């Protein structure tokens, strides 16, 4: 009987691990972006999380995707990191929000600039982690 209880306890513990891992991130925005090498911004998102991440997928062969995160305060935008370039079919950029949360809401307001050098459409997901 003890072996059954130990096995059951281990089984329940394995079920809890994926649930807690999923709870650590939350999608703020997702959608397709088509850019013609000029720069297209994601919608403005607010986050009080530890970090913010933009991931793209469905990039075409020969196309370069460039991503830059910006923190927005009123009409002022500040690059949070240098441009990161990808030639892969998918990829992510993650930026810590330490020092970027401000204002009355104590959140960072962020937009990502997405550049597609060959004018291709990519799927983009913006999420934050806690």
Tell me about this structure.
With about 130 residues, this protein is of the alpha+beta class. The chain has a single domain, classed as GOLD domain (Jelly Rolls). The chain is about 15% helix and about 50% strand. The chain has one helix and ten strands. Strand 5 and strand 6 form a beta hairpin. The protein is globular and about 45 Å long. The relative contact order is 0.32. Mean pLDDT is about 85; it is low at about 5-25. Keywords: Signal.
Tally of alpha and pi helices: 1
Rg, Å, rounded: 19 Å
Proportion of strand residues: over 45%
CATH superfamily: GOLD domain
CATH class: Mainly Beta
Sheet/helix structural class: alpha+beta
The string of secondary-structure elements, in order, is HEEEEEEEEEE
The CA-CA distance between the termini, in Å, is 40 Å
CATH topology: Jelly Rolls
Residue share in helices? 10-25%
Shape: globular
- The number of distinct β-strands equals 10
Low-confidence stretches: 6-23
Oligomer: single chain
How many individual domains? Answer: 1
What is the name of the CATH architecture?
Sandwich
Report the average pLDDT across residues.
87
Largest sheet: 6 strands, antiparallel
Signal peptide: 1-23
Keywords: Signal
């Amino acid at each position: 009987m003890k072996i059954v209880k130990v096995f059951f306890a281990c089984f329940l513990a394995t079920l809890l691990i994926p649930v807690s891992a999923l709870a650590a991130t939350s999608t703020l925005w997702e959608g397709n972006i088509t850019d013609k090498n000029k720069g297209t911004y994601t919608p403005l998102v607010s986050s009080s999380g530890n970090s913010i991440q933009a991931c793209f997928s469905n990039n075409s062969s020969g196309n370069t995707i460039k991503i830059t995160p910006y923190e927005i305060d009123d009409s002022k935008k500040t690059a949070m990191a240098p441009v990161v370039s990808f030639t892969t079919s998918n990829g992510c950029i993650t930026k810590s929000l330490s020092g970027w949360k401000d204002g009355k809401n104590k959140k960072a307001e962020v937009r990502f600039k997405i550049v597609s050098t060959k004018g291709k459409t990519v799927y983009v997901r913006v999420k934050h982690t806690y």
